[in-house]
Design goal:
Layout: E1 8-14, H1 19-28, E2 32-34, E3 37-41, H2 44-55, E4 65-68, E5 71-77, E6 82-87, H3 89-100, E7 110-112, H4 125-136, E8 143-146, H5 147-153, E9 157-161, E10 170-176, E11 179-186, E12 190-193, E13 202-204
Antiparallel strand pairs: 1-6, 1-7, 2-6, 3-5, 4-5, 8-12, 9-10, 9-13, 10-11, 11-12
Length: 205
Amino acid sequence: MEDTQKTNWYVLKIFFNKTFDVEAYLNKRDIESYLPIQKVLLKGLAHLLARKKLAQAPGHRDPRYLVEEPKIYLRKPLVSSLLFLHCTPEQLRDVAEYLREKDANGNIRGYIYKNTDREWAVVPDKEMASFRLVVEAGSRDLQFFADDDISRYATGDHVRVIEGPLKGTEGYIKRIRRDRKLLVVIEGIIAVATSYIPPQNLEKI
C-alpha cells in the first residue's frame, strides 16, 4: 500500500521557460523544491535596472532575483528546464494535475519523470544529497550531462569523497575530455561532473 505521508524527491521537466512559475506555484503550497542555480552578481546598469524593477512591485518577490542588501543577484538556472521537488505522493498528484493544465496556447507546463515501470521516478536521498553538494560547492567548471549521455560516462571507480568541501559525496571517477573528474549521477535523469579531486581525498566504495 502506498504511504501517502512519506516524502520523496522527484524531478519535473518544465516547458517554455516556465521553471520560475512552477517554482512559485510549489512555494505557495509549501512544497519544498530545488532549482540548481548560479548566483550572478549584478553590477552597474544591470544592478540599477534590477533595483528599479523590484521597486515597481514592492512586496512582490521576483523569483529571478535574490536580494542580499545591498547586493542583488540574478538567479541563473544551471540545468535547463529541470526542477526537483520533495513531497508526498498525494501532493505529487496535485502537481501532476497542475502541469497538465493547458495555457492560452494549448500547451501543458511539463511532466514528472517516470522510471522504466512507468511509475513516477523517486530520486534516492543519497543521490540527491551528493548532487546538491556538488552543485552548491561553487565550482565554476561544472559539466552537466542529460539522461541520454549518462550511459557513456557513468562508468569507472565508484568512490566517496572523504576530505574537502565535497566530503560525503559519492560518484564515479571518469576521464572526460582528457580531464579526470568526479561524476555524480541521478540515475536515468542527469549527471554532473566536477573539477579534479586529488586521489588522497577519495576512497573506493
